Amino acid sequence: MKKKQSWQQMAGWRHFDVKFYYYMKVTSLLTTLLFMTFAANAYSQRVSLKLSNVTFKVFLQSIQDQTNVALLYNDHLIENKRISVQANQVELRELLKRELPKYGLDYTISGNQITLVPSAVSRTVAIETRPQELIRIKGRVFNSGEPPQALSSVSVAVLGGSQGVHTDEGGYYELEVPKGATLVFSMVGYHSKQVPVNKTENNLTISLLENVSDLEEVVVVGMTEMQRKHIASSVASLDIKSSIEGKPITNLSQSLQGGVTGLQVQQGSGLPGGDAASIKIRGISTLNNSDPLVLVDGVPMDMNHIDPVTIESVTILKDAAAAAIYGARAANGVILVTTKRGKAGQINILYDGYLGMQTPTILPEFVDAPTYMRMYNYAQVASGGQVFYSDDQIAKTEAGDDPVNYPNTNWTKELIDEYSPLTSHSLSVSGGNDVARFAVTGNYMNQQGMIPQNKMDRFNIRANTSVSLSKRFLINLDVLGIRRNTMYPNRPISNGGSRLLDDLYRLPPTVLPKYPQEEGWPTIYGRYADIVNPIAYSEVGGSIGYQYDQATINLQPKWSITNDLNIRGQFSYRLNSDVYKQNRDNYYFFDYYTKQLVQTWAVQRDAYSEVRDTYYYLSGAVDYSKNFGKHNLFAMGGFSMEKFNNGYWNSSALVSSYAKVNYAYADRYLLEASFRADGSSKFGPNNKYGYFPSVAFGWNVHNESFFNVEAISNFKIRASYGQLGNENIGLYRYQNLINTSNGTESVWGNPDISWEKVNILDIGLDMALFQNKLSLTFDYYDKKTSDVILYPSVAPSGAIGSAPLNAGEVTNKGVELSLNYNGKLSQDFDFSVRPGITYNKNKITDLLGGPYISGIEINEKGSSIKSYYGYASNGILQYSDFEADKTTAKVPVVAGQGPGDIKYIDLNGDGIIDENDQQIIGDPTPRINYFANFNFRYKNLDLEFLLQGTGDHDYSGNLGGKSAGYLWHPLNMSASGGVPTTYRAANTWRENNQDAIFPRLLANPATNVLRSDFWLFNARYMRVKFIQLGYRLNPAFMNKYGIKSSRIYMNVQNPFIFTDVKMADPESQGGSYTYAIMKTFSLGLTVNF
Known about the structure:
The chain has 1089 residues and is mainly beta.
């Protein structure tokens, strides 16, 4: 977007940012008397100053405030310089001649631009010993807007030389330069750009990026862009450079962790193809779907299908005022992702790739076979049975002389590949001119798994094109293609895990993986009851393959009727295809000793299914923006239509209209208002439409005349209130569904079902101090979700399931605080620190038909969503809790309990432990989330690391479908098996270890696996999310080879975690089947040609 600037505004820019030490003397041919007169007028202007011990920046700014001269300088020239000066109507020429030499400075003048340079005494003049070959260079300079606008008065000069010109009104330039020289393109208000001239090409088209302050920064918000200083709602932007660029991430969702306050990102698995993170914005506000709306270039899309290299910006819309423009789908917040577009200028080629090795952050360590056998015997005797393994068997197993008959198997080492490779390669080509621009990126990623036959291959290609059919008509056409192939062993998978991992917790170490091969017989695998070992599954069990394809086209025309009035449109079509293939040969399992057939696996040849879904999106909008003196106005209105079909008979549609107004007076008083109306096919005729208004106010206090605090450069107060909707209830819930096989009503609907409504109050504060070195953002929010959709257990006669009702209410309150400090110890050494913390708590305030209990989870009025429900406990029963016979209890116990079992609390005091003693025992949702990002740069070397963690919350050992899970209870004499970990074995209750953590061993530990707080653990943690060390190769040297910039880096993801949880990862909180979060070591390279 092109931003207009008056001459006075342009003169307000204070510095010319370059990366290397040099001086640039800007001259003009002065061929016309008019130009000479203009320069003379610049010299003759008079200024009055009375300054005492101020920074040189303040001195230069004071001159600019009194003249129409633009002062250009390199930061390092004035660093640590302070000045005291008095002048009364002194000519600018005389003032500069008088003061600058005192500080080793001089100046050159061109038109109205004065450039500070080192004085002749303080610089070394290079003497040419032989004539240099000159080449003629010509070209054109544009801004980076869309469409690009030609820039006049851009300085084009040779780095370290005296040659230089300015672009004309059309942005054109032409000059002769030495071959191999570097051209510097500079203009007030824009970042300078250095371009090496390495060959005899005679045409260089360049685009310059605007150099804006944090307040002037343009931020992508709801369906438009706004300057940050005019935003009154709660909007946060992800630091792309810190979170994405040069990071070995497999999914974009992973990069959001530790980037924005209020954004809770939890990675539940490291499974290739299933390692996407769960994202919540400001916690959970409903009993139903709490996922945020994700829009990529304005269209709903799974962000994990996007190559991170193509990302231009990520914006988080948190409150109602920011998100209301998206209405029915914005109740849980909105994430806006914008992809990169081509810029007018040279062809730019970027390679970004890395090679890495992954290893699990945690793996179970199980007891060896002799320990298992002794524990097994102990459990049998404690349960009134006989020992199962003789001393002779244990001794021979311990000796290891006969591993076939007395095996001692470490199943983790047999199955798990502790180091699996990961690689990603992206190649981008972009460029164009004022007529057409393009950005094409291709990415290939391969991720191998730690279990056999587990891998993921992904190929993405994106082509973003922009064509200016005229000065006022622009078309953006974007095409995206994705293919992702994932393979798993033919063992059921779910929730980011595999049953092969679950088998590790079930198969004893006394089972042999496979017996020695005998001629004429297939491989014979070891067995335990009906459990076939995981090695058999991985070698002869076949595979499951998933192929996901996506093709997306996104067309966005824009007609600028005037400079202030635009008409925009958008059409998008997406086709997704999911193909499932299962493949396995016949296999026959024999007993090794008897050679009897014990089991047959039937062939599963090309079991196949395919699902295709389509998505259509069409929208049109009109927007108007205008500055009227101190008044800044933006208004827009439009409509959209979208339709989704999942490949079967299920489809849904949404029709919407919306309007938005932003107003700012004197950059002090801000107003935002928006309104959206949605019509959804998910609701019946009487409740099809929802209406969602919002309003926000802002006050830039620092722009008030009475506010004169030098240390505070920005002070904004914000407040907003609005209503959003939630339509994520599934399809056809307002209708009765009929079973086509027998004609009976199978699901009872409710024609009066309507939207969940979310009302949000937000009060915020933005501050910047010490010349923007320190910035602070604080928000308090209060969300109330009413008409929450519930499914009471009472259903009409003959129907299956429950009819949905709008009969619940949830409140969600919290605060957010983020800080950002940028420090600079010298020209070569700078650093930044970005900490953030969030407190959030939800509460169910109304719940028809409650409580709702599912396993260990409960939703009950007055509690948090999905609280834990079960028995309270008080440690372990000891001998003192029983009479001398060890069977008669002095305290209430569950039938059959004895010393060493879990001691449950009789809450109601009736002397019996039963379901009436259950209560809410824990909360799985952390109320506190925090992060801190640290970044250090010394010359070309950079170091960055991220800390991320949560406060107190509970983790349940609800693993493997059991109430206490395989991680917690060690043995099970049934066919389902069960093996203790070494940690469990060392901390189990015994007569000589009565202060143990875990209860005693039993053959059937039924009373010790009841749902109780005994199996809840505090899952607070602090994780070092990544550490990265990078080095930027010398640009001057690399430019000789046509390389604009290059960087190598070493990165380690998830290297350390600090937690009280011993046997699981507190972030993933998975079960025995869960694939561990991976620790990744990688070496990466980024090269820009």
